Records
---
Amino acid sequence: MNRTQLFTSADLTREEVDFLLEEAESLRGKNTEDLKGKVVATLFLEPSTRTRLSFETAAHRLGASVITIADPKTSSVSKGETLADTIRVVEKYADIIVMRHPTPGSAEEAVKYTKKPFLNAGDGPNQHPTQSLLDTYTIKREAGGIDGKTIAFVGDLKYGRTVHSLTYILCLYKPAKVIYISPPELKVPEKYTQMLKDKGIEFEETADLDSKMPEIDVLYMTRIQQERFESEAEYLKMKGSYVMTSATVKLGKKSLRILHPLPRVDEITPDVDDMEQSACFRQVENGVYMRMALLKNLSKAYYK
Ligand code: NCD
């Protein structure tokens, strides 16, 4: 793989995704020295638990050291430092940069200021490419892959960046059908359905979850993205739109697999957790191996 930076899922190729899936599988459960002597910077200018900790776990398991900003309030960003200057400074310390930022397009902006390996860990409601790769890895392990599968997204499809990034990857394969299930106010942006149209992939948009359950192979549940709403009142109108309970799961196939990027609020009840269909916490573990694959190979391409 020749890639050194990843700021969107839009320019990933099928060859790259297939390669990364194999790499993640081969790094499963391993500790290596692929990044021995390298410093990975994790800049998280927006809250995170999984993404930051799984990147840091991945870096440690590859033998790297980690420096971090876990809270923008503790960095010079809170003094008004520009993104350009933050990146110009951090690239003098670190060999690889991982960044999460609240502004859409900030990752694409950041790579103007560094040639070093760079990974977008989420830019506002826009993209979350490393999550979509770990989701793809989970779909492969849990359901055998995307081809021929009916894949549904449920919840906040407007602001949910993981939905946007995964849709790009679905377009590299041949799913039987993609179903977007959301309240009308939180529909997936038209750009994504247009992309499916252009690729000749069948899709459907609906607000009704229960009637769709029997046809779904992989169901991707999402959180209503409270922090993206203009007001608390608007969020409260949407809160609790969809709740997956064990009774809902039983409407589906036995082979159904449920994914969720987490954190969940109230959209999957705890009684679902012990069901075989729930893959959410296996998905968390897969994230470490996919991020190991990314850190290793972006670094390898740059530091040859
Ligand atoms: C997601 C995110 O940050 O976009 N979480 C994650 O990275 N695991 C989903 C979310 O916050 O709802």
Note: The chain has two domains: 5-127+287-302, 129-283.
---
Amino acid sequence: MIQNQIVLITGASSGIGAACARIFAPTGAKLILAARRQERLQQLASDLNKSSSDIYLLQLDVRDRLAVELAISNLPPEWSDIDILINNAGLSRGLDKLHEGDTQDWDEMIDTNIKGLLYLTRYVVPGMVKRDRGHVVNIGSIAGHQTYPKGNVYCGTKAAVKAISEGLKQDLLGTPIRVTSVDPGMVETEFSQVRFHGDGDRAKQVYQGVIPLTPDDVADVIFFCVTRPTHVNINEVILMPVDQASATLVNRRT
Ligand code: NDP
Ligand code: 8X3
């Protein structure tokens, strides 16, 4: 069923996005892999060992509205009919009290997590509507359901993703296009390194004594959501490690 479907994955150069590429690749799906780090995408494509007719690389900064519009409208005809959009590109920057926060960090999170996701959606979904088929998967977070101390702006962006997913589902009612929000708790990726601006020790502490989710665990859930019968829409999935009970309640063994 997924064979020959065109799947656009943003943030495919790392973590959950790369895991999505790995789970879709063997199914015969055709993958458009997007991110800023082109060399990472090239490495991933070579690891997946697929022919160029099965993988299309897109160096793209999702914050750049014009670049997103051009990238989507200039896709070669054999790649333009996107069936599944996985809006995964995102990041957190900093963990500070709001009144002490770095406004550049705020801009980066808002521009990537909210505006980038909106741009992709705005330029990809009209084609889905026209073709009467498609599925949008947004990667939200437990942070969009529960705000935690110093998470303020990141949590705000993920609450926005939750609202946008709900709104998109409502606006697409009457079409066969599906909308799903996949909202994980702790997943060990480069996420915390990015949050702490490359401070690897601080990033490691986030997962200390915990068995976190892996990116493959999340990709597995995404794959499940998009392979249900076409009349089934999974609206929202919250998944977290057994060692986590809420955004702030984590069982640490050490
Ligand atoms: P990673 O840091 O490992 O991956 C983030 C991906 O997003 C990278 O591929 C990065 O690519 C891409 N990205 C970031 N900014 C941009 C941009 N401006 N344009 C294009 N791509 C961009 O983190 P995760 O895999 O963990 O994060 C993926 C998603 O999952 C995010 O939306 C995150 O908020 C969400 N999430 C993560 C959780 C976690 O605990 N890890 C839990 C819940 C949700 P590049 O830098 O090459 O552009
Ligand atoms: C990532 C999960 O709890 O670090 O969205 O915000 S959390």
Note: Residues 6-239 form a domain with the Rossmann fold fold (CATH 3.40.50.720).
